[in-house]
Amino acid sequence: MPPRPRLRADAQRNYDRLLAAAESALDERGASASLDDIAKAAGVGNATLYRHFPTREKLIEAVYDQRIQALCDAAADLAAAHPPDEALAAWLHAVATHVNASRTLADAFDAAYQGPEGTEPPQVTAWHRAVRRAADPLVLAARTAGRVRTDLDSTELLALTAAVARAGDPQQAHRFLDVLMDGITPRPEPAS
């Protein structure tokens, strides 16, 4: 997620309003939400929308970028405020919520990708990398505290979390994740 160039204060306000309106519209109506309605909800003209986001895909990418950044920021905040196992569990619940809440956006972004078939869009690769970097310290801290199996790394745990989040009904995801967390907790060796 490369840093965006600095904008004038009024341009930044318009950008922020457009992102908020887009996120709301995309969540309510999916990736086919009207760009005209998004501009109107943000209180700006279509030209302002297209100046910031020349294509629907760029708008979806910006909304998703914002969500990934918030998810990564949450990892550090939770690590600073909670014991390692609680921080990891809370963050993985946030990941599961993100997976379910962003499913339509992710599918739309993938569908719009014009690259070679069977390859992941570069921005998706960057998002996955950012999430793994956010997960690494949480997993390491929980592992060091003896609260996560030592043979499990961040990539595997994120894959399991994503699978659990997509399994069954989205309301079940958090129950499934609690079961997963119990399964990755080391157990004492039985006395012989």
TrEMBL record:
What is the top-level taxon of the source organism?
A: Bacteria
Q: Which residues bind DNA?
A: 34-53
Q: Residue limits of the HTH tetR-type domain?
A: 12-71
**Keyword terms, alphabetized:** DNA-binding, Transcription, Transcription regulation
GO MF annotation list: DNA-binding transcription factor activity; transcription cis-regulatory region binding
> What Gene3D superfamilies does the database record attribute to this sequence?
Tetracycline Repressor, domain 2
| SUPFAM superfamilies tied to this protein | Homeodomain-like, Tetracyclin repressor-like, C-terminal domain
Q: Which Pfam families match?
A: TetR_C_43, TetR_N
Protein name stated in the entry: TetR/AcrR family transcriptional regulator
Q: Which organism was this protein described from?
A: Yinghuangia soli
